[in-house]
């Protein structure tokens, strides 16, 4: 066992209960988001709205502190755009959720194209077929979201966030369970 692993074993052992508890909460939250995707979608939209408002405020503060740098007008404009967009999303979360869903479809489409290109570029390497498979699945998902938009708005964000939380919780739980079997004393 390396020195780094040996020095982290006591810390892992003392936080194991918290890690298992957090894992179970993540799994439950993921299942809840999958079962009630519109609620999870609105929650994600509100989070994005607040992040936009805080980012806008940060741009305004940055503009104030860099008055002599020459970019003050652009920083002020960018800050105002962020705050206005965030405020709009916070005041109209359903419309914001529809916009986020469309943006997600566009992002997934672009990701699929890039994965196709990378898979063909790495074609001689073993395992490059997985990139092609990932690209195909991502492309199909992007088309599914785009073709059903805006009616897909109610389920897409919440379901995808729920799946992500569910798998994060399961993987964290599996790591925690495996850590229970680590030896207490370094060998």
Topology:
Blueprint: H1 3-35, H2 37-65, H3 72-91, H4 93-121, H5 128-148, H6 153-179
Helix pairs in contact: 1-2, 1-6, 2-3, 2-4, 2-6, 3-4, 4-5, 4-6
Q: Radius of gyration from the CA trace?
A: 22 Å
Strand % is under 5%
Unreliable stretches, pLDDT < 50, 5 or more residues?
A: none
Taking the alpha carbons of the first and last residues, their distance comes to 7 Å
Please give the count of helices.
Answer: 6
User: How many independent structural domains?
Assistant: 1
Q: Can you give the helix content as a percent range?
A: over 70%
Overall 3D geometry? globular
Structure summary, number of beta strands: 0
Q: SSE order, as H and E?
A: HHHHHH
How would you describe this structure to a colleague?
- This protein has 187 residues and is mainly alpha-helical.
- The protein has one domain.
- Helices cover 85% and strands 0% of the residues.
- The chain is built from six helices and no strands.
- The chain has helices at residues 3-35, 37-65, 72-91, 93-121, 128-148, 153-179.
- The radius of gyration is 22 Å and the shape is globular.
Outline of this structure?
With 187 residues, this protein is an all-alpha fold. It has helices spanning 3-35, 37-65, 72-91, 93-121, 128-148, 153-179.
Provide tags for this entry.
187 residues; globular; mainly alpha; 6 helices
């Amino acid at each position: 066992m390396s020195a780094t692993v040996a020095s982290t074993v006591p810390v892992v052992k003392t936080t194991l209960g918290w890690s298992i508890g957090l894992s179970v909460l993540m799994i439950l939250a993921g299942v809840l988001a999958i079962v009630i995707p519109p609620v999870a979608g609105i929650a994600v939209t509100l989070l994005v709205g607040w992040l936009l408002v805080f980012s806008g405020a940060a741009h305004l503060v940055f503009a104030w502190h860099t008055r002599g740098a020459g970019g003050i007008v652009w920083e002020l404009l960018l800050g105002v755009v962020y705050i206005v967009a965030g405020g709009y999303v916070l005041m109209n979360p359903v419309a914001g959720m529809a916009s986020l869903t469309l943006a997600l479809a566009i992002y997934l489409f672009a990701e699929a194209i890039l994965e196709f290109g990378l898979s063909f570029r790495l074609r001689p390497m073993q395992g490059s077929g997985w990139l092609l498979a990932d690209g195909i699945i991502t492309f199909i998902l992007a088309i599914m979201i785009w073709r059903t938009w805006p009616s897909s708005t109610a389920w897409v964000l919440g379901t995808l966030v729920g799946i992500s939380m569910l798998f994060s919780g399961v993987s964290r739980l599996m790591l925690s369970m495996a850590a229970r079997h680590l030896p207490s004393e370094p060998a």
